[in-house]
């Protein structure tokens, strides 16, 4: 394990981060204009941007850490926390809301014990909302990964989630 000094603290760095940064240092010159491609590379490799990687990118590019963190939090493509294996999104558009998406969302939150933006402890689900999927005729809409589930009701939504959990366990 490699040691990294961050904010005056010594942290043990997992080997995969050291290997990743070795390849980043080979691929990039450390210029400020390479910040976003570097962030994209790290996220592609790890699935999210751990704090340590942001600090290492700041050192590599000689940019202030605040600039790197600011960029990572400004763009919606970047995540600072790991996401679940299954992404559950509930539409909050007008048609979906009128047909009960808020109640469906509430039931899913209670069932998974999390709020939008969070991931279950087992890493199986991340819950999110979307302003509109553009499929209003199928309202209310719930999307799990890339599968669209239209005319969803509360029981159907929970069954879909339980079916995924059962497949994982089975």
Any overview of this molecule?
The chain has 170 residues and is an alpha+beta fold. The protein folds into two domains: 2-74, Arc Repressor Mutant, subunit A (Orthogonal Bundle); 86-169, 3-Layer(aba) Sandwich (Glutaredoxin), CATH 3.40.30.10. The protein is built from seven helices and six strands; from the N terminus they run E-E-H-H-H-H-E-H-H-E-E-E-H. The longest helix has 16 residues, at 154-169. The protein is elongated and about 50 Å long. Residues 1-12 have low confidence and may be disordered.
Summarize the structure.
By secondary structure, this protein is of the alpha+beta class. It folds into two domains: 2-74, Arc Repressor Mutant, subunit A, CATH 1.10.10; 86-169, Glutaredoxin (3-Layer(aba) Sandwich), CATH 3.40.30.10. Helix content is 46%, strand content 16%.
Secondary-structure map with pairings?
Blueprint lengths: L1 E5 L2 E5 L1 H13 L7 H12 L4 H11 L3 H10 L11 E6 L2 H5 L2 H12 L12 E6 L11 E3 L2 E3 L4 H16 L1
Parallel strand pairs: 3-4
Antiparallel strand pairs: 1-2, 3-5, 5-6
Helix pairs in contact: 2-3, 3-4, 6-7
């Amino acid at each position: 394990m490699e040691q990294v000094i961050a904010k005056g603290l010594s942290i043990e760095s997992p080997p995969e981060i050291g290997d990743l940064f070795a390849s980043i240092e080979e691929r990039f010159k450390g210029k400020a204009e390479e910040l976003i491609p570097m962030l994209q590379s790290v996220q592609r490799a790890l699935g999210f941007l751990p704090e340590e990687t942001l600090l290492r990118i700041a050192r590599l590019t000689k940019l202030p850490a605040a600039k790197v963190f600011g960029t990572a939090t400004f763009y919606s493509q970047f995540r600072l926390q790991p996401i679940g294996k299954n992404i559950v999104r509930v539409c909050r558009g007008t048609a979906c809301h009128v047909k009960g998406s808020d109640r469906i969302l509430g039931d899913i939150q209670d069932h998974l014990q999390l709020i939008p933006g969070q991931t279950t402890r087992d890493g199986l689900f991340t819950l999110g909302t979307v302003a509109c999927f553009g499929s209003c005729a199928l309202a209310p809409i719930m999307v799990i990964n890339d599968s669209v589930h239209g005319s969803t009701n509360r029981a159907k939504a929970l069954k879909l989630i339980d079916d995924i959990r059962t497949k994982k366990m089975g």
